Amino acid sequence: MVSVIFVCLGNICRSPMGEMILKKMVEEKGLAHSFCITSAGTSDCEEGNPVYPPAVRALKAHGLPYTHTARQLTKKDVINNDYILVMDSENLFDVLRLTSGEFGEKIFKLCSFTPSPRDVADPWITGDFETAFNDITEGCGYFLEYLLREKAEMFGYDKRH
Ligand code: 4NP
Predict the structure, then answer these.
(1) What is the Cα–Cα distance from 102 to 2, expressed in whole angstroms?
(2) Whose CA is nearest to atom 8 of ligand 1?
(3) Counting beta carbons within 10 angstroms of the beta carbon of residue 135, is it exposed (0 to 12), middle (13 to 18) or buried (19 or more)?
(4) Contact 113, 142 (CB under 8 A)
(5) pLDDT tens track, the chain, 161 positions
(6) Ligand 1: which of 5, 11, 124, 135 to mutate, most ligand atoms within 8 Å of CB?
(7) Does the annotation count 8 as an active-site position?
(8) Helix, strand or coil for residue 138?
(9) Ligand 1 centroid, distance to 9 Cα (angstroms)
(10) Pocket probe mutation, ligand 1, options 11, 13, 17, 111, max atoms within 8 Å of Cβ
(11) Which residues pair with 72 in a beta bridge?
(12) Closest CA to 78 of 86, 87, 90, 69
């Protein structure tokens, strides 16, 4: 079993998109039973709120589910998950502040797995949910490739598949 938690600031745009996108990817590979995928925000500013409507539209446009209720990340979440995938440098800083600098070895910027490591631009600021969706999809794709290549033993994946 591999546990992954996506993290952004509010948990109403980028991290729920990450959660839905990666869930779909592992489902398509027949690996859903080997993954626990959730999301949370570094802030409590959107606690209890649903996914932000433009993010819902982006998910719907790609045939993905969009039900999620925002909640704040806790130190326990960091302890209990194998991978903490953040969207940008600010999220990384905030998670490390939450953990007093611990667990850095399992906290990654999502797009650090891609050939062009970068932040996922915050669509709350840019208004561009499609670019955010595409960046997150790219990051999830490369992250999953990395797991299947380097960590197959974590979930008994046969590389010959
Ligand atoms: P998210 O987007 O971190 O991708 O969920 C944001 C949501 C809310 C705010 C900022 C970003 N906010 O400032 O309230």
Answers:
(1) 20
(2) 10
(3) buried
(4) yes
(5) 999 999 999 999 999 999 999 999 999 999 999 999 999 999 999 999 999 999 999 999 999 999 999 999 999 999 999 999 999 999 999 999 999 999 999 999 999 999 999 999 999 999 999 999 999 999 999 999 999 999 988 877 666 55
(6) 124
(7) yes
(8) helix
(9) 5
(10) 13
(11) 41
(12) 86
The set of protein residues with a Cβ atom below 6 angstroms from ligand 1 is: 8-14, 41, 45-46, 122, 124
Catalytic residue among 14, 111, 135, 140: 14
Task: Return the bridge partners of 83, or none.
Answer: 4
DSSP state of 73: -
What tokens does 106 get? Answer: 């399992």
How is residue 57 written in tokens? Answer: 């539209």
Q: How far is the CA of 131 from the centre of ligand 1 (A)?
A: 16
Centre of ligand 1 from the C-alpha of residue 42, in Å: 10
Q: In what order do the strands lie in the sheet with 2-8?
A: 35-41, 2-8, 83-86, 107-109
Interacting residues of 54 by C-beta distance below 8 A, sequence separation 6+: 13, 123, 127, 129
Distance CA 93, CA 96 (A): 5
